[in-house]
């Protein structure tokens, strides 16, 4: 059975047909209608209807959707998404049920991603954390093989928890200084490198400069980003009492030594002696879209 899954991102939306092997059988991509949630969900419904009419063996009822938070995921209500401010207060669940025969299920993107990752790590553990570091930072938790998503699906909003007390950068979203997203994300690396070199520097270029070792201030800045990431992961090992973290997101696919440096730091500072704390770098493409297959199993 194929399921219709949609991943709404800040810039693009993908609607795909996914099978239980986490393969994308068909997909359509469009620019997210940032100013108009009605247009956005109308487009998603239209693609979904096309799939039910033109493909065999498609689940005709389920429409599984990952969308940026914070939302009340139990009903599909947008609460205050930083990149989709015009969606504030829009109830996607109501809209889809009124405009179609689909039954929508909503999750945040990291919750979808961890379900895809779980299919590949379950021979090793049933308890782990998924941490994504890309433009932003997000987290999800699987315990005893089950997704734990909190009272309204927002468990793991680590992006706006404080990691650097003496930071002088105020977050435009949460208004605090030194929150995770503004200290260790890809966007943060780019912002910090741009300030050092006094020109626009992409995340990719900043990491290349670090790898070359040609600019001491950039080296020190990225060393600090790595230390903060090690501390965040050690916090997560302790708070959730897990031995495994899977790291996803574009920045973790770079040459930065996330796996070895986090494991080494955690081994040194984790309180329970002789624990085997493991970090795995995700090797899945499109884990958000494909993981949606499993949200209503
Ligand atoms: Zn913040």
Q: Your description of this structure?
A:
It contains nine helices and twelve strands. The strands form three sheets. It has a five-stranded mixed beta sheet with strand order 3-2-1-4-7. It folds into two domains: 2-108 and 287-294, ATPase, nucleotide binding domain (Nucleotidyltransferase, domain 5), CATH 3.30.420; 113-281, Nucleotidyltransferase, domain 5 (2-Layer Sandwich). The protein has helices spanning 37-54, 92-99, 109-121, 180-184, 186-197, 203-212, 216-240, 258-269, 287-291, and strands spanning 2-8, 12-18, 24-31, 58-66, 71-72, 77-78, 103-107, 128-133, 137-143, 146-148, 244-248, 278-281. The radius of gyration is 20 Å and the shape is globular. The mean pLDDT is 95. With 297 residues, it is of the alpha/beta class. The site of zinc ion (ZN) has 8 residues, from α4. Zinc ion binds at residues 160, 171, 173-174, 176, 179, 181-182.
**Distinct small-molecule ligands in the complex:** zinc ion
Side by side, the strands of the main sheet go 3-2-1-4-7
Instruction: Provide the low-confidence segments as ranges.
Output: none
CATH topology of the largest domain: Nucleotidyltransferase, domain 5
Q: What structural class should be given to the helix and strand makeup?
A: alpha/beta
Mean of all residue-level pLDDT scores: 95
Instruction: Please state the oligomeric state of the protein chains shown.
Output: single chain
Level-2 CATH architecture of the largest domain: 2-Layer Sandwich
InterPro entries: ATPase_NBD (IPR043129), ROK (IPR000600), ROK_cs (IPR049874)
Family: Belongs to the ROK (NagC/XylR) family.
Organism: Staphylococcus edaphicus
Pfam families: ROK
């Amino acid at each position: 059975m194929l399921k219709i899954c949609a991943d709404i991102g800040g810039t693009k939306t993908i609607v795909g047909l996914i099978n239980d092997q986490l393969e994308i059988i068909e997909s359509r991509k469009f620019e997210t209608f940032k100013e108009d949630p009605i247009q956005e969900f109308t487009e998603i419904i239209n693609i979904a209807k096309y799939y039910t009419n033109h493909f065999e063996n498609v689940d005709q009822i389920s429409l599984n959707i990952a969308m940026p938070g914070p939302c009340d995921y139990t009903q599909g209500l947008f609460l205050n998404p930083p990149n989709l401010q015009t969606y504030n207060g829009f109830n996607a669940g109501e809209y889809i049920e009124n405009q179609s025969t689909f039954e929508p299920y909503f999750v945040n993107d990291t919750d979808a991603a961890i379900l895809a990752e779980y299919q590949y790590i379950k021979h090793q553990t049933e308890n782990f954390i998924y941490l994504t570091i890309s433009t932003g930072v997000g987290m999800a938790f699987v315990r005893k093989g089950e997704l734990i998503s909190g009272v309204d699906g927002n468990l793991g909003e680590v992006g706006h928890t404080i990691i650097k007390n003496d930071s002088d950068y105020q977050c435009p979203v949460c208004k605090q200084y030194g929150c995770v997203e503004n200290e260790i994300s890809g966007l943060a690396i780019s912002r910090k490198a741009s300030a050092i070199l006094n020109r626009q520097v992409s995340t990719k270029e900043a990491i290349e400069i670090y790898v070359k070792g040609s600019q001491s201030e950039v080296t020190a800045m990225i060393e600090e980003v790595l230390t903060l990431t090690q501390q965040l992961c050690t916090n997560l090992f302790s708070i959730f009492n897990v031995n495994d973290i899977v790291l996803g997101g574009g920045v973790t696919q770079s040459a930065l030594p996330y796996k070895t440096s986090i494991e080494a730091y955690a081994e040194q500072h984790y309180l329970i002696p002789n624990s085997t704390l493991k970090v795995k770098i995700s090797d899945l493409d499109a884990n958000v879209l494909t993981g949606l297959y499993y949200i209503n199993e």
